[in-house]
Structure formats: C-alpha cells, structure tokens
Fold this sequence. Notes:
Low-confidence stretches: none
Largest sheet: none
Distance between the termini: 5 Å
Oligomer: single chain
Order of helices and strands: HH
Amino acid sequence: MNPTVSEDQTLVAKAGVWKKVLWISVGGIILPPVLGLGSTVVNMIQAFQKVGATATGDPQTLAESVSTSINTTAIGLIISLAFGILLIVSLVRLAHLKRLQARARQR
C-alpha cells in the first residue's frame, strides 16, 4: 500500500527544514572561528603597535591586549562547537526521516 499524500508531503517538508538547518550549521561551524581568528590577528597587531609606539614595553598592557585578542578566538570556537552539535542533530534527523519515508513507501 502506498503512503498517503499528506504523510509523504509532511516527511518531505520536514526533511527540507532539516536540510536548511544542516546548511546553517555548516556555516556556523566555519564562520565563527575564522572571524574570531581574524579579529585576534587584527587585535594582536594593534597591541604590538601600541607597545612599539610607547617604547616602554609595559608587560601588563601587552598581556591585557593579548588576552582580549585571544578571547575572540575562544568565543568563535565555542559558537562553532554549538553549531557542530546542531549539525549532528540535523544529520540524525535527516537519516531518521529518510528511514520513515522508506517505510512509508513499503506499505
């Protein structure tokens, strides 16, 4: 027996939503660390320019600037980790929906 049209359409619609979530999560995995690293590089350049401009080499000022710079990379990695979890969830959901579609077609 064939699945009802509404069952099949519902499964296709759900799969479409999870495919969009999958692509959003891929972007969320890639972009935050890249942006965080880029921000770290820019901030590090500025920190060393400050030290070079004052010619005092104050370690405390440099340490504060470096700490702030590295925080942006850490934040990017944390965001990326959250999107990695979302990617896994979306892959599992898509696999489940494909199994449901296959079962519905066998009926």
